[in-house]
Amino acid sequence: MLFFFLIPLWGPLCLLLPPLQTYARFTGAPLKVHKVTNPWQSPSGTLPALRTGHGEVISVPHKIITHLRKEKYNADYDLSARQGADTLAFMSLLEEKLLPVLIHTFWVDTKNYVEVTRKWYAEAMPFPLNFFLPGRMQRQFMERLQLLCGEHGPENEEELEKELYQEARECLTLLSQRLGSQKFFFGDAPASLDAYVFGYLALLLQAKLPSGKLQAHLRGLHNLCAYCTHILSLYFPWDGAEGPPPRQTPVGPETEEEPYRRRNQVLSVLAGLAAMVGYALLSGIVSIQRTTPARAPGTRSLSMAEEDEEE
Amino acid sequence: MSLVAEAFVSQIAAAEPWPENATLYQQLKGEQILLSDNAASLAVQAFLQMCNLPIKVVCRANAEYMSPSGKVPFIHVGNQVVSELGPIVQFVKAKGHSLSDGLDEVQKAEMKAYMELVNNMLLTAELYLQWCDETTVGEITHARYGSPYPWPLNHILAYQKQWEVKRKMKAIGWGNKTLDQVLEDVDQCCQALSQRLGTQPYFFNKQPTELDALVFGHLYTILTTQLTNDELSEKVKNYSNLLAFCRRIEQHYFEDRGKGSSSIRSS
Hints:
The complex is a heterodimer of chains A (311) and B (267).
Chain A (H helix, E strand, L loop, with lengths): L2 E6 L8 H11 L3 E6 L12 E3 L5 E2 L2 H10 L10 H28 L1 H15 L4 H20 L8 H23 L12 H15 L6 H8 L1 H14 L15 H33 L11 H16 L1
Parallel strand pairs in A: 1-2
Antiparallel strand pairs in A: 1-3, 3-4
Helix pairs in contact in A: 1-7, 3-4, 3-5, 3-6, 3-7, 4-5, 6-8, 7-9
Chain B lengths: L2 H13 L7 E4 L8 H16 L5 E4 L3 H4 L7 E4 L2 E4 L1 H10 L10 H28 L1 H12 L7 H19 L7 H19 L12 H15 L6 H7 L2 H16 L12
Parallel strand pairs in B: 1-2
Antiparallel strand pairs in B: 1-3, 3-4
GO cellular component, one term (chain B): SAM complex
Main location (chain B): mitochondrion
Function (chain B): Involved in transport of proteins into the mitochondrion.
């Protein structure tokens, strides 16, 4: 059975793509990823969305993993109860400490945003969304970061940044200590925690960021780098080091995007034409003169003749 | 705190020993304090007891506004004010007292991860229940939060706080959760804690750490606070080793020092 997985190209949840995709690779779930550029293309109206073989649609991220587990694609099958508890704890750690900094690195840090993120999104989105959508996403992310990291005023932004990065560095060091010299976090087989950790770390390692303070720290933790390279070579062999994983668009979705793109272009040209013609007519530049056609008296006389006949 | 300020504070902190008149500030216990703040305050009290450091608890209606970070509890030690469990642990460490020195690197990583789990799930669930569940908000929270203030300030402050909390919930993705989903998350969290604790007396075997203090603070408060229904405390009561854990810490660190407050009802 084939799962179709629609991932948003925009919106805060786009950072979920690497972990969920990695989880699918680990478990061997037959997942086809469709990158859509507007939420109306999704069956449930929100993204990400998983459409199962039965036609059911699931939208909540952790329910997606639960569904995969139910369908026997479970990466955590061999874990003990305590390891399961550890998974939950470390995922919370990642979410609290690492995710805000990832958001900051890719969306709030000006240099990175202008040179990497915005450029990539603008290229991937169709006209005319690429003009305003990245800016809107940035504002959404900044707001989210403000809410998450509290109540510091704008003058404390630098301090907030320093604190955030310090906590993230600590988090990475903790992960490195927990991993030690093992191949995966829980022994010899990857689990869902590995999917999440790899998903976030790979984003950080692969992207060519101009200001990569966290990247530098991560590169210093050799066991984490070796861990990422190991997983990349095992589960993503053709991606290699060609840039961040989300950049890889498989051929399928691209051709599917073509008719939409063509249609959007045709529609926008038609809309432009209609606007021009409408303006021309309304302002009197062009006017249509109605000449009474020759047939009109003929028809009138015919109807009169009919009336005569009736009488 | 910025890095420079932190280093500076640690320097000063290290210079002086722990004074006898250290005080902890929280909101008014009987009428004002809410579930989540009570849990945080109890966690800090438990931690300080475990370190054998004397502390006096003082209740003030404006404790939230006095705090440097806006969160309770905060401690006033010498001429310094430190709020929230994380910075307090570091401050106490700078004074030479620490509970987690005996742990190795892997255990320290696990301890931090579990503390995040409690903050991520238990604390957020408490906040959700207090501010996003309409029944609790109407019957308990609004009345308690605004109790020290005259009308109409009590309503305004309560609504303002509720709006703030709801915004935050939306930002972290809890805005659309139902109460049942939140209770399920609490259950998952308690299950993880219970599995990690196992049959040991404390999370890292013989000695308690700040994780034990934090877990105790939250679980004890959940078990002993009267809410509109008992669903939250029932989730915790399902795990007998967690109940025993709370009882053990209460007996050892609170009752023995003569600070018996409402004890856990065993059912």
